Amino acid sequence: MIDAKLVSELRKITGAGILDCKKALEETNGNIEAAxxxxxxxxxxxxxxxxxxxxxxxxxxxxxxxxKAVILEINSETDFVSKNEEFTVMFDVIGKTLLxxxxxxxxxxxxxxxxxGTIEEYIVAKTAKIGxxxxxxxxxxxxxxxxxxxxxxxxxxxxxxxxxxxxxSTEEIAKDVAMQAAAMRPLYLSKDDVPAEEIEKEKKVxxxxxxxxxxxxxxxxxxxxxxxxxxxxxxxLLNQAFIKDSDLDVExxxxxxxxxxxxxxxxxxxxxxxxxxxxxxxEVMTQMK
Length: 289
Hints:
CATH topology of the largest domain: Tetrahydropterin Synthase, Chain A
CATH architecture of the largest domain: 2-Layer Sandwich
Number of strands: 8
Low-confidence stretches: 277-289
CATH superfamily of the largest domain: Elongation factor Ts, dimerisation domain
Shape: elongated
Number of domains: 3
CATH class of the largest domain: Alpha Beta
Strand content: 15-25%
Structural class: alpha+beta
Largest sheet: 3 strands, antiparallel
């Protein structure tokens, strides 16, 4: 017979259910440490079964310490889970672990010791405990010089995160530029960053459009020049009309204050991922079957 106090203690350590804890203790003859390992192994098996589920909700956030910052995204299956304390504590631990490191790849990041085992082990354990697929999707560590500033902005608690680096500027202006990036979805910093093949493809499409409108070749060519410039204003941060003063583009706004935008990173949670079709009521009914 397994003592109820042992079951309670194991639950506190692992967060697993009563029946799972009881079974683990029975399998390990009441040895707490062995039971933890047993549940961990079971958790890994449980987590692997969740691997095919869709995790397109979650949080994006930014951690800053002096001249170093990290932006990251971790996904969950539901928005509800991404807001609970278990998830947010996990996110905080992983973010701060990354900030102390100098890793550049996901493979390196997953091997980092976060105080709860490696980041990979920590996520597996939390997946088992929370009961949803959790996915550490991406991150980037950014460093700056002393005469540069970070700007960071979070939209709706982390549905979108934007991080900027500006030279000879202020944190307030850098945050304005981060807000611009979050709101206006630029793909590139400047037109110089747009791949040549992408520009040529766009020019071809615009030329066909002009010709289909019945414009003569010389007029079509002039129209394409105007439209490609509008294209740059849509996809390039520096060329976009500034959201706080549409008479200026972002580059001019920052330049007028003596600064320069060096880089930006924008994460939107779940972008490019398949979304769940099930609604909450259907999910509850599924769990009840």
